[in-house]
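2024-03-11 09:14:02 DEBUG pipeline.ingest accepted 1 chain
2024-03-11 09:14:02 DEBUG pipeline.ingest length=529
2024-03-11 09:14:03 DEBUG pipeline.predict start
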Amino acid sequence: MIHYALSWRNTNEHLFDIAIRFVAPHDEPRLILPSWRPGKYQLQNFAANVREWTPNLRKLGPNVWCAEAKCGEDVEVRYRYWAGVIDAGSSYLDRSEAYFNGSTLFMWVDGLRSDECVLTIDTDWPVATQLPQDGKELRARNYDHLIDSPVIAGPFATQSFEESGATIQLVSIGCDTARFVEPVRGIVREQIAVFGELPLNEYKFLVHGGDRWHGVEHEDSCSMLVKRGASDFDEHFLSLASHEFFHLWNVKRMMPAAFAPYDYTQATPTRLLWAMEGITSYYGDLSLARSGYWSEQRYLSHLAHEIELLESSPARTHLSLAQTSFDAWVHDGTRPHDRGNAWYSFYTKGEIVAALLDLTLRSRRMSLDEVMRVLWAERILDEDALSRVVDDPPFFARYVDGVEPLPYAEIFALAGVRYEERRKRSTLGLKVKDGVIESVRSGSSGAAADLLPHDELLAVDGLRVHSTADVEHALHETKTGDEIETIFARNGGVMTRRLQLKDDGATEIRLHIEEEDNALRREWLRRRG
């Protein structure tokens, strides 16, 4: 058994104190901190937050230490961990709460990863976690279970309900979740209907009020950071909660063979990320429609928005969905590169392809629901599991492994839905946030003007701009062929470029209900009557 103890001295330091006690499995056992965490398919530098380790620890590598001990000796090591950033996958400490994800701060003992773990937290605050509690002790089956179990200690509020023999809890700090009990209940029911069972007795949504949206899935819980004051707060909250809840089946219990078991020391590519995340996104928002929270048209408007996002990406013409899944590990949005043209989100295209696949299957008296139940029985999925179960090689060759244009109009027509697209006004091919260019679309007016990601865009056609919407406003009275002036800052200098507006290829997508009573659509969205 491995004993982990967590404490802190002064919350203003934002430092956790970690102690690990164990019996050395061999001479000079290694202790390793993960290089990444499940749910975030990128290498992360958690070890940069480790400091002040005890003298019996000697560092061997960026995230590897060695304990000075002989085989069979009792060992205790200590270190401190800086926890000053809050998101759904981080660890955080301040005077109002302690929140942590074990994958960021607990080392495992090489050779003892499968041993039972006991965690104690030195606090008078109440504690919420998926781990079983025995007095002050939290017990985990093994190291993987320990680090997959986030913990909130603090003055949280709890809302709960019973569904299908399980207790579902909304545990929140910094936001009120009482009004979400019934909508979440409806979502839970719809997702249970997909798989036919709920494989747990208790589930917790661990919710923090914050300044952005973020969620991370876990075995019997999820962590959510929700954006306080957002104009679409309720919709976004339920969409995020629905996505994370679906993960308790898809990813946490049903996963690619590449993740069984997880290798926390290095990148683990798989071409199935689109199925793990994109299909989860599909069912996450479909559940809002099936539960009655969204109308049919509201759901179709959501799909239209996702299609717009995909169709605005030049990478869709040369990068397959399977490949963008495999390449997730190399496309880090925090590092400067031409990500906007070289890559697109497998969440977005995965959701769209899942919708088109489901409608295609339903036209043949099958459904993606049935496919998910077959995969649920398999649990550990090889790389071709989904294509094998669906058994439609042309569909996968064209739209998953290939880059053929997606047949929107043809497939949505099966559900009595009309697909429309029209050209949008030029935005110079730019995405701008807080005055900084995030991406420049290949072949656009902005690219012709030599604009680059990370340039500070100061003005467009004489107007100060800070966002993509500002650029659209500055150009609202212009047309293709007009000349305008842009002013931007780069490398410490201010530059001016005159450019001629061109058709950037951006499209506005709309999905409209054309047949009011369509049996396929009724079964798809589970509308009765």
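2024-03-11 09:14:41 DEBUG pipeline.report The mean pLDDT is 95.
2024-03-11 09:14:41 DEBUG pipeline.predict end
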